[in-house]
């Protein structure tokens, strides 16, 4: 997910996206623990997406 795409979303959409990404990370970790995950790098990608969303939310909080 590109940072430019995330910056176009509203705060409510970003919070929804954050919840969705956290749920996805939980599922990826669960699948990894049960050896059903084909690509373990998906976990890192998901964690970086979460960090991007949190960064944008924090930037907006400081700007206000």
Characterise this structure.
The protein has three helices and no strands. The chain has 64 residues and is an all-alpha fold. The protein has a single domain, classed as Helix Hairpins. The longest helix is centred in the middle third of the chain and has 23 residues, at 11-33. The chain starts with a helix and ends with a helix. The mean pLDDT is 95.
Write the layout of secondary structure elements.
Blueprint lengths: L2 H5 L3 H23 L7 H23 L1
Summarize the structure.
By secondary structure, the chain is mainly α.
Tags for this model:
64 residues; mainly alpha; Helix Hairpins; 80% helix
Helical residue percent? over 70%
How big a fraction of the residues is strand? under 5%
How many helices does DSSP assign?
Answer: 3
Poorly predicted runs: none
Task: Give the assembly state of these chains.
Answer: single chain
The CATH topology annotation reads as Helix Hairpins
Whole-number count of domains: 1
User: In angstroms, what is the radius of gyration?
Assistant: 13 Å
Q: Please provide the ordered H/E string of secondary-structure elements.
A: HHH
Q: Provide the CATH top-level class.
A: Mainly Alpha
Return the CATH architecture.
Answer: Orthogonal Bundle
Describe the largest sheet: none
Number of E-type strands:
0
How would you sum up the global shape?
Answer: elongated
Structural class, please?
mainly alpha
